[in-house]
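Below is how a single chain appears once it has passed through the pipeline. First comes the sequence as given, then the structure the pipeline wrote out for it. We keep one example in the README because the format questions we get most often are answered faster by looking than by reading.
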Amino acid sequence: LTIKIRFMKKLFFILISIIVAININAQNWTIKQMKDKFGDNASGCYYMNTIAKGSFSNSATIKDNLIVSFSYLGSFRLELLEYGSNLATFENGEFGVLDVKDQDGEVYHILVKQKNNYLEIEEKKYVDGLLALLHVSTNLKCYYEEKTEYAKSTYNFTINCIGFAKCAQRYIDVLRKKE
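Resulting structure:
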């Protein structure tokens, strides 16, 4: 009987650990309120966001720390923080390709527009395709390469998709409430 009780306690502990781990992963997607030019919450303006981690390389460094703020508000916005804190800058108005690989190994090529300090995915077919991938994937590996006349930078990061569908439903509910 004591062996059964010990076994049940261990099983209970394992199940609780799994539930906690799932909840922690599910909370990586959040809904945030946009800020106005004064830093105050902008009334009725919300977006979805997650933080991805990875590495970047350029002429000064190889595989250094990269943090990516990945946001959705009708289009996708990617802010790449080199060394974990320095916002990457891009040639404003230029286009590039974000390669996205799902957990099955399928690679998708997504057109991005470079803004001064972020990348934007705004063309409907790419936005819809990425939304679909986020709904059905557990994670997406991403690769972006920027070449200029004088230099080349590469960015590798992984987007955790767990919790995206639940957050997307909450996002839709928030948008409905503001109408």
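The helical segments are 2-26, 124-136, 164-178.

See the next section for the split statistics.
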